[in-house]
């Protein structure tokens, strides 16, 4: 659309169902590349995708014609399909329902980029559940822990 200008930066976070440690180091770079390509295919821009065995972080420039829910639905469905078709896990792979989508001011893009880049080091000190609840708390987002994480039952 002519005369439409935007600068929408998002930090996206999504987890493996039941927070299982299912993303293995030996194939995670391929997964992150697939996720980055899936984001780019929507017309959005991938800055970085990284994570650890139970969750993924993405830094994205959102295209205004694409909704966050549309982007996440596509990325999660197609990336889990990739994992299952490539038989990268011994059992069926699924992402947990829901995701985190946090807007950023341009001045924070480099800081969040480095944070995502250093996920492995970060998670030697902080577990995902603590990390995620800290993000929500720091941003003033009210949440019910009962519904934030799916546990094995």
Account of the protein in words:
By secondary structure, the protein is of the alpha+beta class. It has one domain: Transposase IS200-like (Alpha-Beta Plaits, 2-Layer Sandwich). 39% of the residues lie in helices and 18% in strands. The chain contains six helices and four strands. It has a four-stranded antiparallel β-sheet with strand order 2-3-1-4, sandwiched between helices. A hairpin with a 2-residue loop joins strand 2 and strand 3. Helix 1 packs antiparallel against helix 2. It starts with 8 loop residues before the first strand and ends in a 5-residue tail after the last helix.
Q: What are the segments in which pLDDT stays under 50 over at least 5 consecutive residues?
A: none
The number of helical segments is: 6
Provide the helix percentage. 25-40%
The CATH topology is given as: Alpha-Beta Plaits
Strand order of the largest sheet: 2-3-1-4
CATH superfamily: Transposase IS200-like
Q: Give the N-to-C terminal Cα separation.
A: 48 Å
- What structural class do the secondary elements suggest? alpha+beta
How many domains, as an integer?
A: 1
Mean pLDDT across all amino acids: 91
The global form is: globular
InterPro entries: Transposase_17, Transposase_17_sf
Protein name: IS200/IS605 family transposase
Pfam families: Y1_Tnp
Domain Transposase IS200-like: 5-119
Name its key features.
153 residues; alpha+beta; Alpha-Beta Plaits; 4-stranded antiparallel beta sheet; 6 helices; 4 strands; 18% strand
Concise account of the structure shown:
This is IS200/IS605 family transposase. With 153 residues, the protein is α+β, with helices and mostly antiparallel strands.
């Amino acid at each position: 659309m002519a005369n439409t200008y935007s600068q929408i930066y998002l930090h996206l976070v999504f987890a493996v169902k039941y927070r299982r440690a299912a993303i293995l180091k030996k194939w995670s770079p391929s997964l992150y590349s697939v996720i980055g390509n899936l984001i780019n295919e929507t017309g959005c821009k991938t800055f970085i995708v990284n994570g650890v065995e139970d969750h993924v972080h993405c830094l994205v420039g959102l295209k205004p014609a694409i909704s966050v829910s549309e982007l996440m639905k596509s990325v999660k469905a197609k990336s889990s399909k990739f994992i299952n078709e490539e038989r990268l896990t011994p059992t069926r792979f699924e992402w947990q329902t829901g995701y985190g989508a946090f807007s950023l001011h341009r001045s924070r893009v480099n800081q969040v980029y480095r944070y995502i880049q250093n996920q492995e080091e970060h998670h030697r000190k902080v577990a995902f559940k603590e990390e995620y609840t800290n993000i929500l708390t720091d941003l003033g987002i009210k949440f019910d822990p009962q519904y934030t994480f799916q546990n094995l039952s």
